[in-house]
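Think of the structure tokens as a kind of shorthand, similar to the way a musician reads notation: each symbol stands for something richer, in this case the local conformation of the backbone. In the example below we present two proteins back to back. Begin with the first one, reading the sequence and then the tokens, and try to describe in your own words what changes along the chain.
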Amino acid sequence: SGKSVLAEMIARAAGGRRVKWARFVPNPGRYGEEAAREEAKDPLVFAKAAREALLAIPCQEVVVLDGPKSVEAIEFITYTLSRPALLLWVEAPSWLRQFILNTRRDPDDPFEEERAALFAARWEEIRRRALVVDLSSNDHRHALEALAAHGIFPRIPMESVPVLLDRGFVLGMLLHFTRDQPLRISINDIPCDWVFHVSYSDRFPRLRQDPQLQHIVHVIASAFRLVDDVLDESPTRRLRMGDRVEEIPAHWTVEGAWVAVMRAVAMLCAARNALAERGALEGFMEMMERVVRAVSVELEADRERRPLRPDEYALTLERESAFRVWVARMVGEDPEWAAREGVMDQMKNDRRALEARKGLEARRVAEIFSS
């Protein structure tokens, strides 16, 4: 459902650490059946191991315990360590859970039904006592208020909706899942209707000579647009449909910001893996890092509640130019021409956002123009 990613985000926001429950369960079995047998003999067997490990962590440091399986275990730890516990239950839409199960290929995923049956009663009890964070919703105000009561705030929160999402953390996710720990996902796993930004073959006609590369480029471009709309909190997205342009609701406003980001991560991993299979991965991570660096400049200015400086605004224009330079090199076009075109188009998009007064991008551009 994405709970481990959310747990990591909260741990970083709190300046604490994420501790995986699985580290206290040395022999879980194929889907947890061996662990359940151990707990039948002693319901607190793993909770006791967790308590011993947590004793070494200073009491003022926040610990995000990722994946405990029972209320009894949580209560034992919180009472014996004198630590308050805040329970969060993470839910994702069923189609996304199924997509993750079908594509991440973890060893225990084929036993999802058996695992669900084994832990159903325990999970229901945890859910009944927890604050529910529905990743398909943009309303997590109760969880945000509860975390804030303990001094835990997203470093760069979304401003327009009360969603438990740190926009700066999203950029780290993109790099982590494309560079450090790519998901085992194929480009063929990406549904066709996820790929909506398909105009790069117009800008780079040579892409049409290589249908697979063309598809990879369009997958990456669509993923970037999904993330861009979330980070800029843009409520709508312009799409070119042949000779006409349509304005549609941004995906995150319909399916939730977290789901849009998770969809984008899956798409970027699939594209990265397809490039690796072609032996064409060189330059991809450099492009990703340049794009992330350009967007980070904007988010840091948002965090500090100040306008972008002119030199910073110039750097943000790499969001588009870095990607186009990479595409140009892949198809043998002039990268300098692609860089200029990317800068000009990004500035045109900024002016359009300013005229439409759309999202945080409009505010940034207004501030830089006025200064």
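Once you have a description of the first chain, move to the second and do the same.
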Amino acid sequence: IHMDVRDTATEDPLDPMPYFKKYIKDDVAPEIRSIALYPVAGEGEVEGKPTAAIHLPASFNQPFTAWGKVIAGIKAYDKMTGTTNIYGVKYLSLNIDGKEVYFHHESGQYTCRLCRSCQQRLVDHVDLRTGVDTARLYG
């Protein structure tokens, strides 16, 4: 059985954890799979090269060397007790020399029209002549 928790006014999917937290055990921490620095073309380098440098968990304690403009990237998943599913990470921050330079908090509300996994199903239900949804989308 599959169940979605949705906002009744917009039908956007919601994070079910705030509603079912007392019934769901979640004591598994998020897992970082890789971190990377990507140099901006012509404006930066990482490890002396104009290409990305990616660190896997075994090398997380090794510092990156970079100059110029670079973009940080992370591949991370959250998991939950009793399941092999993977979920998005709710909180993410980036600190440089002890100073927080980026913070992200996932609100728990998702606009389904922007979800890549939903786009194909939405296209199937849109009348291409009028642009009007012809059916309701349920995950």
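Compare your description with these statements about the second chain. Residues 116-139 have pLDDT under 50 and may be disordered.
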